[in-house]
Specification:
three-stranded parallel beta sheet; single chain; alpha/beta; globular; Aspartate Aminotransferase, domain 1
């Protein structure tokens, strides 16, 4: 990623926004937080939004707002960052992992059906790498079993499914403003998107020690507030996020047009989905040798997520074994993130494709 290429042209505006917050002396839950909540709400069809300290807190608070408790089960994907499953376990509930769709890396709705039990309390799909999960199918399953759906939209702000923006597809959604995300901050930050005002009111209490007024405390909550400095900067970035996402999509198209698909399996886009390519995840049978060869040619790459959640040591007590979720395990061993950011040039795309062509010519796929 090239974070500087995004921030550089906006530096004067960012500096002015930070100075403006410093001049007010108001740093916690001020007008910029309220403004950002309102602006994102407008993008998501008027759904109430609540800023919190980071994307992980957003997940924990969203689950808490649904009264997820010890002994409950929450169905989710094993192919995601640890925070998704960690948030479930943090509340004493059990993450129930099911396999993913081989085309889009997202939760497989058919696999979800097989995991529902009498202890299931929610479904938590992740819009992984910028591609929306199959929410139409997941919501149908959830409605049949009277289960809420929480979207983990940390990697997909600005994406859409069948014309509905990511974040407005479930009962709740969570957003991360981590600096490498599509809609970034310059530090940690997060948001919970709610379907109704009553849930939003509870999320607001939970983010501030379980209190609405600092005087009466109704439940055990958290100290998890999006600060004014972050909100002020994120509001600037929000005005540019659509152009940045368009740039990411253009880079993905440039990779395809340059013939990268001759050497690697490229990410796909399900009909009706607007993929915003938080990461550009290609696949090759000898992924590790490919990464090593690219590094030798000055092209960076990264593995996401090399050990799926069901095989992580922290969840060993759940009893999953290698081979239990074969699609997720195959993606974990074959997928590699190639350079992807909104400002990649044709020359940079050509350099990546050329390096891949050289390496793959020396690293035949295992049969």
């Amino acid at each position: 990623m090239d974070i500087g290429a995004q921030y550089g042209p906006l530096r004067a505006e960012i500096d002015a926004a930070i100075a403006g917050v410093l001049d007010t002396g108001r740093f916690i839950l001020g007008p910029n937080v309220a403004g950002l909540e309102a602006e994102i709400s407008e993008r998501l069809g008027g759904r109430p939004c609540v800023g919190v300290a980071n994307g992980t807190d957003a997940l924990v608070i969203a689950l808490n707002a649904l009264d997820i408790r010890p002994g409950d089960e929450v169905i989710t994907t094993p192919y995601t960052f640890y925070a998704t499953a960690e948030a479930i376990a943090r509340l004493g509930a059990t993450p129930v992992f099911c396999d993913i769709d081989p085309d889009d890396f997202c939760l497989d709705p058919d696999a979800v059906v097989d995991r529902i039990t009498e202890r299931t309390r929610a479904i938590l799909p992740v819009h992984i790498f910028g591609h929306a999960a199959n929410m139409t199918a997941i919501r149908t399953i959830a409605a049949r079993h009277n289960l809420p759906v929480i979207e983990d939209a940390a990697q997909a702000f600005g994406g859409a499914c069948d014309g509905t923006p990511v974040g407005a597809l479930g009962d709740l959604a969570t957003i991360s403003f981590f600096p490498t995300k599509n809609l970034p901050g310059i530090g940690d930050g997060g948001m919970v998107v709610c379907r109704d005002q009553a849930t939003a009111d509870r999320v607001r209490r939970l983010r501030f020690h379980g209190s609405a007024d600092k005087v009466v405390f109704e439940e055990v909550g958290y100290n998890s507030r999006l600060d004014e400095l972050q909100a002020a900067v994120i509001r600037i970035f929000l005005r540019h996020v659509d152009d940045w996402n368009d740039g990411r999509r253009a880079t993905a198209e440039a990779y395809a047009n340059a013939g990268l698909d001759e050497f690697l399996e490229l990410p796909s886009e399900r009909p009706g989905v607007r993929h915003i390519y938080h990461l550009f995840m290609a696949r090759h049978d000898d992924r590790d040798a490919l990464a090593k060869g690219l590094a030798a040619r000055g092209v960076s790459s990264a593995v996401y997520y090399g050990i799926p959640m069901h095989l992580q040591p922290v969840f060993a007590h759940l009893g999953y074994q290698p081979g239990d979720l074969p699609v997720a395990e195959a993606c974990a061993s074959r997928a590699l993130a190639l350079p992807m950011h909104p400002h990649m040039t044709e020359a940079q795309v050509a350099e990546v494709v050329g390096a891949v062509a050289e390496v793959v010519g020396q690293v035949p796929a295992r049969g």
